[in-house]
Specification:
Layout lengths: L2 H5 L9 H26 L12 E6 L8 E4 L4 E6 L2 E6 L10 E2 L5 E2 L6 E2 L5 E3 L8 E6 L4 E10 L8
Antiparallel strand pairs: 1-10, 2-3, 3-4, 4-9, 5-6, 6-7, 7-8, 9-10
The structure holds FE2/S2 (inorganic) cluster.
The site of FE2/S2 (inorganic) cluster has 11 residues, from loops.
Length: 161
């Protein structure tokens, strides 16, 4: 190699293979350590949150008085009102858990496998083995209507208002 060129301030000595492999190993170890550190720091944060309480406030009780039907699609239920009081009906199909829709005649239809329920939630066609569940309703001390999505009640039970 030309001696003048090697003495130039802009001259860079070529990286030798041994040095290159050493640097590559060092960078790989550093990146691996950093990724492992990120994973370790993320461990305390759950990726799946536990289901919220089964009891959910639906709103002030007055809001439901005299209202024939109020839908809560996010909770997959309806609150109905009849001459005896209020009741909540689950919109979860008793076959495999799809969300049923309301039909014009007041009955319910499951789009997954075609189960049909009458206006009272009774299974009348399709593979659904049971009627739609009626859910427990009660009033909280602050006057809110509350549904307990895990407690079924008899279909004749009404919350008198
Ligand atoms: S899930 Fe409703 S009929 Fe199958």
């Amino acid at each position: 190699m030309n001696a003048d060129l090697q003495e130039s301030p802009r001259f860079q000595k070529p990286v030798e293979r041994r040095d290159f492999l050493g640097l590559a190993a060092l960078w790989s170890a550093g990146v691996s350590f950093f990724v492992a550190l990120l994973g370790t720091l993320r461990l305390p944060m759950p990726s799946v949150f536990p289901e919220s309480s089964s009891q959910v406030k639906l709103g002030p009780l007055e809001k439901f008085k005299g209202v024939k039907m109020t839908a809560f699609p996010e909770l997959r239920l309806w609150v109905f009102s009849d001459e005896k009081g209020l009741f909540a009906l689950s919109a979860v199909c008793t076959h495999l858990g799809c969300v049923v829709g309301m039909e014009e005649d007041g009955g319910f239809y499951c789009p997954c496998h075609g189960s049909r329920f009458d206006a009272a939630g009774k299974n009348i066609a399709g593979p659904a083995p049971r009627p739609l569940p009626y859910l427990k309703l009660f009033v909280s001390p602050d006057g809110q209507l509350v549904v307990d999505r895990k407690k079924e009640v008899n279909r004749k039970v009404r919350l008198t208002v």
